[in-house]
Amino acid sequence: MNGGKCIHLSDHEIYWYVLFVQTGSEERLIKRLKESLNCEDFIPFVPKKTCVFRRQGKKSLFQKTCFPGYVFIESSKQVLEFTKHVYPITKKLEEAYRFLSYGDYCDIAMHEEERIALSKIFGNDYCIDISFGFQEGDSIRIETGSLTGYESKIIKINKGRREAIIALRMFGNIIPVSVGFEIIEKMTARHFCSKSLPRGFAKEY
Question: How far apart are CA 198 and CA 123, in angstroms?
């Protein structure tokens, strides 16, 4: 066990496993797993998304769980070694149900192409950040945020709720996920950079 801060593993030999759990228990299970596993080889996390809402005339940002009912574990261990270390722990957790698979109970490691695609959108902090872009007819152009370069994954825009619905693939299934998205004016968009927020926004977590 390692009581210190968990860090990302090297891109070499990374595997993602996804545990189906009772919705609402994600953070408690993350804590239990971190207490029981070596953080050098196992990094439990819950992907988050940054959302937008108005309060007293001010736009604010807050984080929500991206996939309620699921806990991810990043590991350097292949399936046999992973199950040897993790199964004895998860079997003792009443709120943990089973690991997702591709149909075969032994095929529980997320395929590399899916893992890489998700990790690019999640970023280093496992969070889909608010994106900003403009709309020209039926076309969407992302100027900044996690969806930059991923316009093709957007299947719907809800301007009123400041959300975009995107299609993510996980364990062979297409999952629609709502993420924070703000339509901006084309001229204004040129002034944004990847780390800046529009005037009037305040981060709240």
Answer: 21
